[in-house]
Write a structure and sequence with these properties.
Radius of gyration: 16 Å
Helix content: 25-40%
Strand content: 25-35%
Number of helices: 5
Shape: globular
CATH class of the domain at 59-181: Alpha Beta
Order of helices and strands: HEEHHEHEEEEHEE
Amino acid sequence: MTGPDPATGETPELDRIAELVRDVPDHPAPGILFRDITPVLADAEAFTVVTTELASLVGEADVVAGVEARGFLLAAAVAVVAGTGVVPVRKAGKLPRVAASRTYDLEYGTATLELPEDTIAPGARVFLVDDVLATGGTAAAAVDLLTDVGASVVGFGTLLEITELDGRKQLGDVPVHALLRV
């Protein structure tokens, strides 16, 4: 895992990745500051660092689950590096067969997540991945959804945590790992 340089205490790789994250004001609604990670995904070196860092946190998980949509991209790459399968946690209406669904509040409305049928075995250990942890509503809904089908969520990994929104508290005792915190 990339950590601080022992001599300087700096983390140049993560500092560079932080510079790639774009702030987009008033998206998707007025007053919301959207954190766009697309430049991180488009940069091969940055994407490799993020993938490797998150994969190092998977531990003994049986599967990695990714939250739609940017979480899919991260989770798929993390699963390949970690040597696990990947399962998408989808927005409502995208799956032909649904095992469970969960509706939750966003800072700008409500949304529903669904889990595909026959993809998570009861008792499976799941490492959940999303791009940004903000208020925690999406992450908490995904954890609840996975728990509803009998899985054990062993950790949550994210590229970016917006600390002032305190979304971490929504995840209870699930260990939260954020590569960047703003």
